[in-house]
Design a protein that fits this description.
12 helices
């Protein structure tokens, strides 16, 4: 049985005070929520303070990105070891905004995933097609390429530290959500790719999250699908009440 994951990607929002206010509101709302892993991903500058606020709670801390080297002359970058030192257990890698705006490629995603796993982090590995790719009937080709190249040379043991997040780019921050059946179709395909790369057991164990304008109103229908194991939540994770509602319904 795969334990569902509800992760909140705060993106470029929340100063230290605002982040602590959000966490302070969230903690009591989900303190009794069982059967689901809850993760929040603030900006780098507040990770340490949020880690202190989450200590001893049922909420895990994630970063939004990492670099593939441990240290060196890489101005502006942050390593996986530094993220663990700041209190992180998870890291988001390959988000479409990183790919779109910051030149992230399947090859750099692969290097980051390997570095994060080596350091001991659990990876939230993002994949997804653009609107142009979907309309051009390229969705499955894109997903196969991103999964295959992103996980290149990972052992089946290393794969256990990976959670896949399928986020159709056309649904991120647009208010549009893939229909339940569209999302299920993509998730089922991704699970099949994992089975082909590894084996049926690895595919069955892989948790695959949906992301893209997830709200309390649509999480129930998504979670009812056989191959959807949770959600990577954007805007709705910036308010304690809406994120808590998603976490409670995401089982």
């Amino acid at each position: 049985m795969r334990t569902p994951v509800i992760a909140g990607n705060w993106k470029l929002y929340k100063t230290a005070g605002q982040a602590l206010e959000l966490v302070g509101g969230l903690l009591p709302l989900v303190a009794q929520t069982k059967g689901v892993e809850i993760v929040v991903a603030p900006v780098f500058t507040v990770l340490g303070k949020v880690a202190e606020a989450l200590a001893g709670s049922n909420i895990h801390l994630s970063a939004q990105d990492c670099f593939w080297e441990e240290e060196g002359a890489f101005t502006g970058e942050i390593s996986s070891t530094m993220l663990i030192d700041a209190g992180c257990s998870h890291v988001i890698i390959g988000h479409s905004e990183r790919r779109q705006f910051f030149g992230e490629t399947d090859a750099t995603v692969n290097k980051k995933i390997k570095a994060a796993i080596k350091a001991g982090l659990t990876v939230l590995f993002c994949i997804g097609e653009t609107l142009q790719e979907r309309e051009g009937d390229q969705t499955f080709d894109v997903l196969r390429r991103q999964v295959t190249q992103g996980l290149r040379d990972l052992s089946q043991e290393q794969l256990k530290k990976v959670i896949i997040a399928y986020e159709p780019v056309w649904a991120i921050g647009t208010g549009k959500t893939a229909t339940d059946s569209q999302a299920q179709e993509a998730h089922q395909f991704i699970r099949g790719v994992i089975a082909g790369l590894y084996d049926k057991d690895a595919a069955e164990e892989m948790r695959i999250l949906y992301g893209g304008s997830v709200k309390p109103e649509n999480i129930g229908g998504l979670m009812a699908q056989a191959d959807i194991d949770g959600a990577l939540v954007g805007g709705a994770s910036l308010k304690a009440d809406s994120f808590a509602a998603i976490a409670k319904l995401g089982k």
